[in-house]
Amino acid sequence: MHTRQVISLIVLTFCGCSLTAQSPWLLNFEKPATNPILQADSTAVFNDPIDKTVVQWQKADVFNPGAIVRNDTVFLLFRAEDDPTAILGGRTSRIGLAYSTDGINFTKYADPVLYPDNDDFAVWDQPGGVEDPRVVELPDGTYLMLYTSWNAKTARLSAAVSQDLRSWEKKGPVFQRAHQGRFLDIWSKSGSVVTELVDGRLIAKKIMDKYWMYWGELFMNVASSDDGVNWEPLLDDEGELLHVLEPTLGDFDSHLVEPGPPALYTDNGILVLYNGKNLSGEGAGTMVAENTYCGGQVLFNRENPAKLLKRLAEPFICPSLPHETSGQYQAGTTFVEGLVFYKNKWFLYYGTADSM
Predict the structure, then answer these.
(1) N or C: the chain end with fewer CB closer than 10 Å?
(2) CB-based contacts of 71: which residues, under 8 Å, 6+ apart?
């Protein structure tokens, strides 16, 4: 029996939630009956430029998508893994592209749009591949993708840019120039760029003449950038990475707090949807099962993105459906990563685990 992860969707609902009435800064979602919306496909093949072989690049999983609206169409940039027999972390990931005119029913392009190649970035991208894309639009219309380069040793947050979502130019690790390269070789993932809703599209927002990004895995950190490609992490008084959000012992996010989709610059503050994982054993929360991934929400100051204002004390999404509570993570996973405003609704896309 192959273990697979799939992509699902939740849609913002405007009624029937006391949390929204009490806390106007929150987004409240519900899961539609159409889930999952994207699944693995063993018939999809690709000529791998490194091994010179034909690979079934979507055979194991498709999951953890970034999302963006272009030309009144929703595009998903999804992570796909190839070999279902390989151990967790031992597969090669590539990033595919799919599109939809209703936000629910998607058509995939045949080939991946980002993958390990015989290029200057292979030292970071090979053999594990490119993972977990988040995508935003810059004010000049350029698309910025932040993704994880995985060389099977160290995960590095990397950037790529595009004009059409299909052809991407890799830029390499986002921290390679900051602080004399001090943070080039640290474990870094999950870049959530602050965006603002402009004419129905999420556009990267400058605050104090800088772009801002929440990032990290165990802890949530923050970084700033002039161009969206090269980022400088903020440091604390001791010169170490500044943690703007940490796990809360005894709660659903007792193990880690990992940024989700692009952050939202709103009237109330900067809203960040994040992925919280519960510990196993001492310190674990009792609200959800141990080792479970659930979604949380936090609010930061509009003028000072490093200043935490509010944290939702309970998850807004947790595993509850069969394809969310079995698979690679037996405790269950709802991993939020793609967010768009489309046809007057918020659509939130997330990865789940499924056994098929």
Answers:
(1) N
(2) none
DSSP helix/strand/coil, 79: strand
Strand partners, 54: 47
Q: Are 257 and 274 in contact (CB under 8 A)?
A: yes
CA separation for the pair 116, 94 (Å, rounded): 7
**297 close to 312: Cβ distance less than 8 angstroms:** yes
In this structure, the chain runs to a length of: 356
Task: Look at residue 16 in the predicted model and tell me its pLDDT.
Answer: 26
Domain range list for the chain: 3-355
Q: Give which of 26, 11, 28, 102 is closest to 349, Cα–Cα.
A: 11
The CATH class given to the 3-355 domain equals: mainly beta
Q: Which of helix, strand or coil describes residue 348?
A: strand
Model's pTM, two decimal places? 0.93
Cross-strand partners of 81: 61, 93
Give the model confidence (pLDDT) of 8-35 as tens digits. 666 654 322 233 435 889 998 988 888 8
